Every structure is written in C-alpha cells, then in structure tokens.
Amino acid sequence: MGSSFEFEKSTIVNELIQGMEVARQLKFHLSSSSTSPENQLTMLQKILSSYDTALLLLNWSDSSVVQPQAVPAMVNLPESPISTNESGDFKDHHQDVSKKRKALPTWKDHVKICSDNGMENSGDDGYSWRKYGQKDILGAKHPRSYYRCTYKKTRTCHASKQVQRSDNDPAIFEITYKGKHTCLQASNSVLPATPKKKEQKHSHDHHQQQQPNEMLINFRANLRVKTEDFRVVEASDSFSFPSGIDSNSQISSYSPYSQLVDEDLMGTFSPFISPDTTGSSYFSVSPYQMNSFGQLSGSDYTEIMSANTSTTNSPILDLDFQIDEVDLDSNFPFDTPGFF
DNA sequence: ACGATTTGACCGAC
DNA sequence: GTCGGTCAAATCGT
Q: Distance of CA A272 to CAs A155, A169, A304, A305, Å?
C-alpha cells in the first residue's frame, strides 16, 4: 500500500485523536457542569463527527464501496454499515450494485415513513432529486424508483439513489444512494428552493431545503430515533434544543456510525433540511457529505441528526460508552497494530 | 413554456 | 433470455 494508505491512516488517527480531545473536554464540562447543554451537545457531536470520519475512512480504504451514513430525512437515519442487518428484510443491494457498476460509493438507508398525526413523512434527505425511472423488481412487491440529482447536468452532480418500498413493511423504504453530491446544493442558501410540486406522492423523497434554524427547531421537535429494527425511541430530554417543538416532526433513524452532528452547532452547516410547505418538517442528513470523498469537510458528512439521545440504544450511546471505557485518554495508541 | 414525472424501450451484465 | 438500470418521448402540473 502506498502513500495514500498512509495518508488515510494519519487522517483517521487525527480524527480519532480529535474526537478524544473533545470527549475529554466534554467529560470535564460534564463533571463541572459549567457548560450549557447546547455546548455539551456540540462537543458530543464533534466527537461523533470525528469517529464518523475515521470509520468512513476505514471503510473507504477497505473497499471501494462505502456505506456511510445516510440520512434520510425526516424520518430516519441510515443504518449502520457496520452493523449486521438485523432486520434481515432488506437485501444487500449495495453490494450487487457495486459489482455491476463502477466504484461509486454506495450505501443504503432504511427510511420509515411515519404517519403519526395523520401525516405521512417523506424521506427527504435534503437534496433535490429527479426521478428518471421506475422498475418492477423480481421478487419485490413494490417497484423500485430511480432518482438522480436534479443538478446532474447543471452542476455535473452524479449522485443518484434508488428507492424501494419494503415488502414486509410498506411504511419502510429502502434507499440506496450512489455517488456523492458534487453540486453542493446543500450549502445553505443555495438551496434550490424549488417547491416540490409533488408532495402528493408520499414520497419518500421530496426535497426542499430548510434553513438551519428551522432545522434545529424541527429537529428538536419530537425527535424519534428509529434503530435498526425500527424501534422508535423518543428523544427529547437529553437533547435540548432551544425552542418549540412540533409534534408533527419526527426523525427516525439508525445511524451507521453515528449521526448526530448538527452542522449548525458544528460550525459548518449543512442544510439538508427542507421547509415543507405542507407543514411537516424534516430533518435530514445527507449521506454524501463525507470528506473522505473529497471536497466536503468532516462536519459536512456528519450532519445533523441527532436524534441520538441518552435514552436510546443507538450507536451514539455505544460511542459514549466507549469513550468512557478508554477514559478519554488521548495517549491511546491508535496506531497500535490491530487496533483497527 | 418549462420542468418534473411516467413509462415503454433499450442496453449491458449475468 | 432474464433482470436491473437508464434513456427519452409522452404526459402532466404549474
């Protein structure tokens, strides 16, 4: 392996060290309770961001197929790439896709469309997609829809995704993302405020963007984290955002490595959210934002999501636990053979 | 008129 | 030949 591996390794180590450092700070603040919940959250998110990046890099260097977190919108988060597919209901599409297609980073998400309050949330991931095809898939009860980035031509963005309703649970959509966005449509203001006309299609994906503040608010709103087997966890206490809660909003997700990282809080905001004219807001995270692929910064890919809270058994919790385990010692020998 | 969606046709991989 | 993915003309919605 050449220098590229060395580069990745050092990057990974740096990310982990950074995460450790922030964790250390957080630990200190927690013990002294001198910090506001928001700051603590920010720190936690930074930690998660670092670990996400490190894990993504590990995955990326392992093979051309990456399964980063994807975060489908409003409704949930992506499943953990590292975790085994507990649900077993989904086929591992990304694998076969990668064999047939070139090495575009591919990963899957499971999005559950919630219909609490009579509303059906769509799996908005914050990006603008254009449907270009639909196919009946052998053995599947529902057709698979194909989407590509709306800015494929104008911004030469080759991101695409496939959406298929689960056979077992119609409320669940399996979303396979391919390629990362190069259109940067998520960058704050630039959002294509194209009011999606077809909200109608219950879509698992309409994609309008939303301003950061709105994101936070919506996010906070009645957060729900759906873990891999779609258990719904109410998130609220441990996660405190500034204001109002809208019980209509929900976020379910499972996170690959972790999700949570609110861009706003992190410094770089990634507007994966979209203001929905219907009133339901989503909080979405884009799967594509990972710096391991290039131009986007670390915080970019770790979007938001935050749905993790201490009340869940989400990956985040695991991470917390791990952090404790190592006692936040930055001297931890990351370069120890076998550590990875 | 323009942009998005639908849907049958086409193409490559197996 | 079958199947999954994409193309592109027709259609729809604004």
A: 18, 26, 8, 10
Q: What's the CA A21/C1' B6 distance, rounded, in angstroms?
A: 53
Distance CA A98 to C1' B4 in A: 28
Quick one: which of A48, A127, A102 has its CA closest to A80?
A48
**Mind listing the pLDDT tens digit for each residue in A83-119?**
333 333 333 333 333 333 445 677 776 666 654 443 4
Q: Which SS3 state, helix, strand or coil, does residue A293 take?
A: helix
Which stretch of DSSP H or E encloses residue A145? strand A144-149
The answer to whether strand C lies under 7 Å from the CB of residue A317 is no
pLDDT in tens, A229-239: 333 333 333 33
Q: Which residue minimizes Cα–C1' distance to C7?
A: A132
Residues sharing a CB contact under 8 Å with residue A284, sequence separation 6 or more, in sequence order: A71, A72, A73, A74, A124, A125, A126, A272, A273, A274, A303, A304
